[in-house]
Amino acid sequence: MSNASLYLIPVPISEKNSFISDEVKEILPTISHFVVENLKMARRALRSLGYKKDFDTEVSFFEWDKHTDNQSLKEVENWMMEEKIIGVLSDAGLPCIADPGNRVVALAHQLHVDVRPLSGPSSIILALIASGFNGQNFAFHGYLPIDKGQRIARLKQLESMASAGQTQIFMETPYRNESLWVDLLANLNEKILLSVAADILGEKQFIKTRSIKEWKSSKEVSFHKVPAVFCIYR
């Protein structure tokens, strides 16, 4: 077993609720090497978590997103071989869910590096437990296809699985929420239940579960450009 460690560090999902555990506060000062999804957002998140080290002289960052080739992980591999303590951060919430951090974790396992997840908020899990849907049988699908035809076909697949008793969870880039919303109401069976959890833990938190038929007559929906998680169930 290597003496290196890979910590999976939670990031607050809203400015209003930025709770961080004592465990995270104790671990952060010991870390000088970070794998991050976005450098600017990572620096901001670390400062919000009370991190004090100088970013320019004391800290090494490696930006890792869905467009980065696996071969580019050589630098992170070197950190692990040098037995560094490494932190992984997503833009919000827990790393490795709806972001590519899992490939860094897979590398750590290959090199026998100790992987240590730290507890924190997950918008996906919070949306699920607030939906009233099946929490013993569920699936998260990340982002749906951008192409309208492919997205509608995917929604029909998810509807079929939801009708069989499995909660289906997915999300969209905030600026495309409205187009997704139109497709949900136009293509799902009116009896299907849809739960929307927007701005979770934020000042404008909106969590409602309604049938598609009820949503069609609702006038209270407004989450354009607001982070949201969608769940459907029978």
Commentary on this structure:
It is a single chain. The chain is an alpha/beta fold and 234 residues long. The chain has 2 domains: 113 residues, Tetrapyrrole methylase, N-terminal domain (Cobalt-precorrin-4 Transmethylase, domain 1); 111 residues, Methyltransferase, Cobalt-precorrin-4 Transmethylase, Domain 2, CATH 3.30.950.10. 31% of the residues lie in helices and 22% in strands. It contains 8 helices and 10 strands. The strands form 2 sheets. The chain has a 5-stranded parallel beta sheet with strand order 3-2-4-1-5, with helices on one face. A 5-stranded mixed beta sheet has the order 6-7-10-8-9. Helix 6 packs across helix 7. The model has no long low-confidence stretch (mean pLDDT 90).
Principal-axis shape: elongated
- Largest β-sheet summary: 5 strands, parallel
Low-pLDDT ranges: none
Radius of gyration in whole Å, from Cα? 20 Å
Strand order of the largest sheet: 3-2-4-1-5
CATH topology of the largest domain, which one? Cobalt-precorrin-4 Transmethylase, domain 1
Count the E strands.
10
